[in-house]
Amino acid sequence: MSDSFDVIVIGAGPAGYHAAIRTAQLGLNTACIDKSLGKDGEPAPGGTCLNVGCIPSKALLDASHKFVDARDHFPAVGINVGEVTVDVAAMMARKDEVVKGLTGGVAGLFKGNGVTSLPGTGRLLADRRVEYTSHSGETRVLQAEHVILAPGSVPVDIPPTPLTDDLIVDSTGALDFDHVPERIGVIGAGVIGLELGSVWNRLGSEVVVLEMLEEFLPMVDARIARDTLKILQSQGMQILLGTRVTGATPGKDGVAVSYQTSDGEQTVTVDKLIVAVGRRPFTDGLLADDSGVNLNEQGFLIVNDTCATDIENVYAVGDAVRGPMLAHKGMEEGIMVAERIAGSKPLVNYDCVPSVIYTHPEVAWVGKTEQELKASGEDYRVGSFPFAVSGRALAANDTQGMVKVIADGETDRILGVHILGPQASEIIAQAVIAMEFGACAEDLGLTMFAHPTLSEALHEAALGVAGHAVHMVNRKRK
Ligand code: FAD
Ligand code: AMP
């Protein structure tokens, strides 16, 4: 094998593997170094997302949702199935199978597209040289014309709650319980905490979520966040806001978790404690002292708008650079960098990054929230539409939530779309497309949507911006 490449990518998560595949497709001699190993000890490209993130969590969210549907909601639509039970081992085995299939798929894509896969660890040296250490410990120095750093992120751990083998776990551990614990504590009511809390709550655990902030989901539109909180509580999740975890003591009866609220110090005992307090960029061992690439105060690799680092022809993408820690954001950065290396000039539109929380109903949004617009004094108009009057949602017996479209008060250009509802993760894509094309609320209103669909709620909310929603009573507006 040659020691010289046009492009070396370090990290094969969504950001890195997209970059590697696209540079190879564009005719560049590409290698990708990744250190992840699967449960079978074999190389498992795909990063956090495929191995311990998006995919396994969605496998469990979908499975646990089907369980609740069958147990609680089938009778209402005329289906009686008797006692519904959970087989945790089978659920986990299926999840692992999905992960294995997808990591194998990335390996296959590397092979098919001519990416040289280098399982092991990469370290950036000066002058675009990369030290590669295989899993068996052999080290070689490779030379690249271009280097793309995509080392991703890892869970943050906090001093009061050091992880243990199986009582105090992070998100990775919470994807692998071998039974349904009776009581679970989740530290952090962020996206990951709520998703994992939902999984185990649905499967029968008593879940208490301990969140330091007074405000629930501050990054979400306030109305949507308020409704989401109520719905999750109605599903049985206990969500304590203004609650700072200060310690955790594992013992034979579980973990005694101490926390501070405005009422003082309190304790709750749980069988498992999930620490979901955020993620940090992972750059341990990535950079030699003279690599020239710099980190900011929070440990993120410093890049400009096009993901170039401070060193020419060295780029960084994904969770390890500024911006939301989301797989699709990293993927688009990976593609952008690959195409720029090959001579094109694409950009990532950071104003149009969709976010999703895969609870049920799902929460999805893109663009500005109403509270942000209010704070910046912008002139805006809002149209909203509840799923409670959507024909398709009623037919499906799944009517919680709403769509909210926010448009510029003068130009009518869509500034933000916020959804709480069934399949919000799918509906939001239509809003992203509209915003990418600079659409006005009226443009969406003039677009024909298939009937009956959940997406019609977006259509009606867009019409509602001008007071023209049809399935709402609105006599005065012209
Ligand atoms: P990563 O996926 O972290 O991949 C980085 C890879 O680089 C890893 O394989 C790592 O081992 C390897 N690596 C690091 N350093 C080196 C080195 N020096 N040498 C060799 N290899 C190295 N995002 C979403 O958009 N949607 C979701 O639904 C979603 N759900 C999530 C659920 C959970 C439980 C978690 C934990 C995360 C979730 N995320 C989700 C976030 C998503 O997983 C990340 O945003 C995404 O994986 C980041 O991609 P990345 O390529 O930047 O890094
Ligand atoms: P996210 O960064 O979206 O994954 O969310 C992590 C959440 O964990 C944030 O909302 C933090 O406020 C919360 N958090 C961090 N530390 C603590 C702590 N000690 N106790 C309770 N919540 C915490």
Brief write-up:
This protein is an alpha/beta fold and 478 residues long.
* Helix fraction bin: 25-40%
Q: What's the total count of β strands? A: 21
Biggest sheet record: 5 strands, mixed, barrel
Q: What is the 3D form?
A: globular
The fraction of residues assigned to DSSP E strands is 25-35%
How many domains would you count in the coordinates?
3
What order do the strands of the largest sheet run in, or round the barrel if closed? 1-2-3-4-5
| Low-confidence blocks of residues | none
In CATH terms, the superfamily of the largest domain is FAD/NAD(P)-binding domain
Regarding CATH, which class of the largest domain? Answer: Alpha Beta
Query: How many separate helices?
Result: 13
CATH architecture of the largest domain: 3-Layer(bba) Sandwich
Radius of gyration: 24 Å
What is the structural class?
alpha/beta
CATH fold category name of the largest domain: FAD/NAD(P)-binding domain
Mean pLDDT figure: 97
Q: What is the CA-CA span between the terminal residues?
A: 71 Å
Description:
The structure is a single chain. The protein has 478 residues and is α/β, with parallel strands linked by helices. The chain folds into three domains: 224 residues, 3-Layer(bba) Sandwich (FAD/NAD(P)-binding domain); 110 residues, FAD/NAD(P)-binding domain (3-Layer(bba) Sandwich); 104 residues, 2-Layer Sandwich (Enolase-like, domain 1). The protein is built from 13 helices and 21 strands. It has a five-stranded mixed barrel with strand order 1-2-3-4-5. β3 and β4 form a beta hairpin. α1 runs parallel beside α8. It is globular and about 70 Å long. Flavin-adenine dinucleotide (FAD) binds next to α1, β2, α2, α3 and β3.
